[in-house]
């Protein structure tokens, strides 16, 4: 399962090596990054898709948090310290969809549900995942199981996907690019940020995987829904047919055009919209 990928970027000054000519007037959103780690079954890599919202103050750190890290407090101790952050503390605002716990449910084969499925949670913010982090000394650059889904959480003033730490390790992210808005879009960056937050924080569903079937709901699904719902085009990846997960998911959705389920009909419309605006943002 191999992708054509681009050099990952971690700052707004870097550009991905995607040879896409974008239509005049389409505006790149430098303060947003689409992150993709594609599934690779050969390497047993589960992959992850998420979106990052860049703020100039994200590396600012509360004195109390700096002291807690200097004192070597583990994640559980920081949670219990109730520091009440007033700063981002090194965490970048970001959103992705995760399984709350072990997703393998073999008994589901008898009740017509997906075998790989479980409760879904924004940014992996679930007690089962937090428990795995509890005794570890973790900084914003370290791997963690659980992010946070709310503002003003134990670690930061903003929600964060646990994969946000990969910005400190760009070699871990095979594909990064910016979304665009079309030429007639008059929204400010804060308005776009607010729409992303609203879409992510109100999303609710299981987490499941079915090899890009229309039946699944996972991090790919949430990213596609955020982009489409917030009118964010992706000419450099979806517009170039580089996102194989998107292509297979779209094909599966459209093949089930007669499915009466409202959720499926809504996702068909959103995926079609995302495909159209991503192509529209290209010059040809």
TrEMBL record:
Listed name of the protein: Uncharacterized protein
Compositionally biased intervals (Basic and acidic residues): 139-161
Region described as Disordered: 124-173
Biased composition (Basic residues): 128-137
């Amino acid at each position: 399962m191999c992708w054509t990928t681009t050099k990952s970027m971690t700052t707004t000054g870097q550009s991905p090596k995607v040879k896409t000519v974008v239509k005049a007037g389409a505006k790149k959103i430098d303060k947003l990054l689409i992150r993709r780690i594609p599934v690779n079954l050969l390497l047993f890599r589960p992959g992850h898709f998420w979106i990052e919202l860049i703020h100039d103050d994200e590396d600012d750190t509360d004195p109390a948090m700096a002291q807690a890290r200097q004192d070597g407090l583990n994640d559980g101790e920081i949670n219990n310290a109730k520091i009440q952050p007033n700063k981002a503390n090194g965490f970048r605002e970001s959103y992705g969809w995760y399984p709350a716990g072990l997703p393998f449910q073999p008994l589901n084969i008898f009740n017509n549900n997906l075998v790989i499925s479980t409760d879904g949670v924004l940014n992996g913010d679930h007690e089962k995942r937090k428990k795995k982090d509890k005794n570890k000394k973790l900084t914003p650059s370290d791997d963690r199981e659980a992010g946070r889904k709310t503002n003003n959480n134990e670690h930061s003033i903003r929600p964060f996907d646990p994969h946000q730490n990969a910005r400190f390790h760009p070699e871990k992210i095979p594909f990064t690019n910016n979304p665009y808005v079309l030429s007639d879009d008059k929204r400010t960056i804060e308005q776009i940020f607010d729409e992303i937050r609203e879409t992510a924080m109100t999303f609710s569903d299981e987490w499941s995987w079915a090899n890009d079937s229309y039946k699944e709901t996972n991090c790919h699904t949430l990213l596609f829904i955020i982009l489409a719902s917030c009118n964010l085009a992706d000419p450099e990846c979806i517009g170039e047919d580089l996102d194989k997960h998107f292509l297979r998911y779209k094909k599966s959705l459209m093949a089930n055009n007669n499915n009466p389920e409202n959720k499926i009909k809504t996702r068909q419309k959103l995926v079609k919209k995302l495909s159209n605006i991503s192509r529209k943002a290209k010059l040809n």
